[in-house]
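Ticket #4471: structure output looks truncated?

Reporter: J.K.
Steps to reproduce: submitted the chain below (177 residues) through the standard prediction queue, then opened the result file.
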Amino acid sequence: MRHTVVHRSRVTRGNHEKPSPSRTEGFSLLESLIALVVFSVGFLALTLLMQTSLQKNNSAFYRSVATEQAYDMADRIRANRGAAGVTVVNYGGVEASADPGCIAVTCTPLQLAQYDGWQWNQTNARVLPSGGGSIVPSAATGAVTVTVSWDDNRTGEDCSTPTPHADCMSFVVEFIP
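Returned output as attached by the reporter:
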């Protein structure tokens, strides 16, 4: 049995419906441009998300490195604290010291403290952007404050000085050896 189908002002015969011409013509130019704008905005948002993610990952990495460096100095101080912690005060200001050159021979506790401070800050400068550190022992309480600073935004600020710039990030650990 055959029947006649009326489809959008178009009469077709038989069991097969033919699509109307409006469905086969595709998108108009305006619809294509709107789709292009929507996809472009989406890709820009995705790019911004990726940039922010990379920046936060970098910041977290530097914080981890600074934490490791601070605890490294704490371990060095504990290893060289001497009888009843009397050499803890030897670490005051040693981060600005030069290599005492005694590692090949026997070092005194003060020379070892100078070497530790020198070598520690060399590593800070190498592994952190504009990295540096400071060591402040308290003779009264025996506590030691170790601060590691770095330029997290990479603005070129000098963060290696004991009083870093306001844009510098710092990790501070205070302990009693």
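Triage note (M.O.): checked the attachment and the full token line is present. Helices lie at 21-24, 29-79, 109-127.
Status: closed, working as intended.
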